[in-house]
Write a structure and sequence with these properties.
single chain; mainly alpha; 21 helices
Length: about 550
């Protein structure tokens, strides 16, 4: 009987792991139509984008590793491994923390799996395995380049190479454990309040702020480490004992590495045990539901477009992963606006060293604001997010173009309003003329519209409808990936043209010309949406 039970658990674990991994990787490609050429093209395009992302990240961390090579020549050579272990953990937590809540507690198939004769602990373990894969991919982009640089520039030691490679597999367990703690707190608070999105967004923005603050000061931090290796080593030993033992192990101390492994394993098992006790309670809790007293009031009649737009806003504000991954650019625009208001004159003096005409400098900041705005990709996953509710939209007796309008306007309002405010502040700080100020704001709005329309067009071509949590279409689908880069491509053409023509064309003519081009492309894409896009939506 015991052998039968073990075989059943083994079979169930294998099936669940296979399902989780298939869900993880299938989210990266298009689903729906059985067109082999289309699927091959989607996979090839996504793989190319992933390779580009991994290559750029690897180059960045390789450069950082070369800057820290002098540390390996001192008696505190273990600090080298500690620094990159800390960096890898930060990136692993950063990459998986926003998926933890949706993957573990808000997965759409939680109710289905819990209704089956499957232990809840087994379901939780499989969910955490998916998070482990995510953390492993992120951390490998830090640990592997740093290890290669160490093997090339420092005395080669086979034991160091072997232990460091094992560490690539062990360290992600720490990131998953921390991510699960943060996700557990979010789930706990979300079960007590009605709008769980507020907690997630506030927490995540705080995490982003700390992370980007550290990233912006990284060069000074690297110099500080190189010049004060002994003091940094003492601080790591005192406050980050886990990374101290990890770095000693990677530097060749086998006993320290075994102790580090035991600490990570114990930490992971404790977190797993604690979360498993409240897993069912939190996944089945009614999220902040409370009784409302009905008050009679007059119902206001609104148009179909207004109703759809209100629906989009309600869904957007109630979905934290949607806000954080698709609209973080709006937060960055606000930060950039405050920076211009406080430090605009200093930035003006810095750029004036390039000998560009003063009237062109506001255009540079306008393009920077557009670059930040292009990081928003709300529409590139808005169709995919409808998923099983798609039939409801199709059954509503209204024009499908009204649905498209609402999704585009959601992007335009959330991104365009901070973009206009930002360019208005730029115009005031740099004393731009009235015409240049109007053209800057006009260009930024038209650029936002182009990104919104392009994102919706791409999502109609590459929809992802068979997901179990919102993170899949928002973060892992092909349309979301293309939507993230398409604004960069548009802006790259504008920037290259600006650099070529800066000494020839006045700023007003440059912005007028490109405003017309952007408007024309937007009109063409809208016409495509109104015809071919409608047919694509109907045939989904």
């Amino acid at each position: 009987m015991k052998m039968y039970f073990l075989n059943w658990v083994k079979m169930m674990l294998k099936a669940l792991l296979k399902k989780q991994l298939l869900e993880f990787f299938s989210g990266m490609f298009r689903s729906g139509k059985n067109n082999k050429n289309s699927k091959k093209g989607a996979k090839a395009g996504f793989i190319a984008l992933i390779v580009l992302f991994v290559f750029s990240m690897s180059v960045m961390f390789t450069s950082m590793a070369y800057l820290l090579v002098p540390v390996t020549e001192t008696e505190y050579s273990w600090v080298y491994f500690a620094v990159f272990g800390i960096l890898a953990s930060m990136l692993g937590i950063f990459g998986s923390v926003f998926m933890t809540y949706n993957t573990i507690y808000e997965a759409k198939d939680n109710d289905l799996l819990l209704s089956m004769p499957i232990p809840s602990g087994l379901i939780l373990f499989v969910r955490m395995a998916g998070l482990y894969v995510t953390a492993l991919l992120y951390e490998a982009m830090v640990l592997l380049p740093s290890l290669i640089v160490y093997c090339v520039c420092a005395p080669f030691d086979m034991s160091v190479l072997f232990i460091s490679l094992i560490n690539v597999l062990i360290l992600p367990f720490f990131a998953v454990s921390v991510s699960c703690i943060l996700g557990w707190f979010i789930a706990l608070f979300a079960s007590k309040i009605r709008n769980k999105g507020i907690i997630t967004v506030v927490f995540s923005i705080a995490f982003f702020a700390v992370y980007y603050f550290a990233a912006m000061r990284f060069n000074s931090i690297i110099n500080l480490i190189v010049l004060n290796t002994e003091a940094v080593g003492a601080a790591i030993k005192k406050y980050l004992y886990l990374f101290y033992k990890m770095s000693l192990g990677c530097n060749g101390d086998v006993f320290s590495f075994l102790l580090y492994f035991a600490l990570v394993a114990a930490f992971f098992l404790v977190i797993y045990k604690l979360i498993s006790k409240s897993f069912i309670k939190l996944t089945t809790a009614k999220k902040g539901m409370k009784k409302k007293i009905y008050k009679e009031k007059q119902i206001k009649i609104s148009s179909a477009r207004t109703a759809f737009l209100r629906k989009e806003f309600l869904y957007f504000k109630s979905t934290p992963v949607y806000m954080l991954n698709s609209a973080l650019g709006s937060v960055l625009l606000i930060i950039f606006t405050v920076f211009i208001a406080l430090k605009g004159e200093s930035a003006f003096l810095l750029i004036s060293v390039t000998n560009l005409p003063p009237e062109l400098i506001p255009v540079i900041f306008c393009l920077v604001s557009c670059f930040i705005a292009s990081t928003n990709n709300i529409t590139s996953s808005s169709i995919s997010l409808e998923a099983k509710n798609l039939w409801l939209l199709k059954s509503v007796p209204t024009d499908i173009r009204d649905i498209f309008f609402a999704k585009i306007m959601l992007h335009v309002i959330i991104t365009g309003v901070p973009a206009i405010v930002c360019n208005a502040v730029i115009s005031i700080v740099f004393s731009s003329g009235i015409l240049l100020s109007i053209l800057s704001m006009l260009f930024s709005v038209l650029f936002v519209i182009l990104c919104a329309v392009s994102g919706l067009t791409v999502n109609l071509i590459f929809p992802k409808l068979n997901w179990t949590n919102e993170a899949v279409p928002i973060k892992q689908s092909l349309s979301a990936t293309i939507g993230m880069f398409i604004g960069f491509v548009y802006l790259l053409v504008v920037i290259v043209t600006f650099l070529v023509t800066a000494s020839i064309l006045p700023a007003e003519i440059f912005l007028s010309g490109f405003s017309a081009v952007v408007a024309a492309i937007s009109v063409l894409l809208i016409r495509r949406l109104n015809k071919k896009g409608v047919n694509q939506f109907i045939n989904m």
